[in-house]
Design brief:
Beta-Lactamase, six-stranded antiparallel β-sheet, two-stranded antiparallel sheet, 20% helix, globular
Length: 181
């Protein structure tokens, strides 16, 4: 289960996508999720490993305390996490579906848990060349005391959908007609 805002963006992306295909950039209308605009971003893909910010909402730019246009998104992540995230982003080009990174925003004042959504978008030729994204804090942003993010630290990567959900942890069994765990 993801944060309600992350789920909202995933549902929006899926409503625009065709089975097995990412939606076109032209199918995405920012007015449809205007209440989340400050938390959204668009990444490009120039070459493997270079994902420049095309657009960054106010919250995203404020969190990093800089203009992100043209900055490689991978450089905001801890060195140890970059290859794993790059591999996942490249995989989204072949298997287009949303991806949620559970992460921690690290600052001098503390750590903020966050979900970062990456959802591929296609160009006019049908090839994924952009990513629609969302920064969704999972606790109070005030705990950062206005300090800029120094790095993003990856905790996990998850894809939504039944095939990617964990199985049930508790199974019921019946013994002599009585349900037991």
């Amino acid at each position: 289960m993801f944060h309600a805002n992350t789920e909202r963006m995933i549902d929006y992306w899926m409503s625009r996508a065709q089975p097995g295909e990412a939606p076109s950039r032209a199918d995405i209308q920012p007015a449809d999720f205007r209440q989340l605009m400050a938390q959204t971003f668009i990444l490009g893909r120039e070459i493997k490993g270079y994902y420049p910010y095309r657009l960054a909402g106010g919250f995203v730019a404020d969190l990093h305390r800089r203009d992100l246009r043209g900055a490689n998104a991978l450089h905001l992540w801890a060195d140890r996490d970059r290859l794993r995230l790059q591999t996942a982003l490249e995989e989204l080009r072949n298997r287009p579906e949303p991806l949620v990174a559970t992460a921690e925003v690290v600052t001098d004042a503390g750590i903020l848990p966050m979900e970062v959504l990456f959802a591929p978008l296609t160009s006019h030729d049908g090839a994924p060349d952009r990513y629609l994204g969302l920064y969704q804090p999972l606790s109070m942003v005030a705990r950062l005391q206005g300090r800029p993010a120094t790095t993003l630290s990856l905790r996990s990567l998850r894809r939504p959908g039944a095939a990617n959900e964990e199985g049930p942890r508790l199974r019921l069994a019946a013994v002599d007609g009585r349900l037991v765990a």
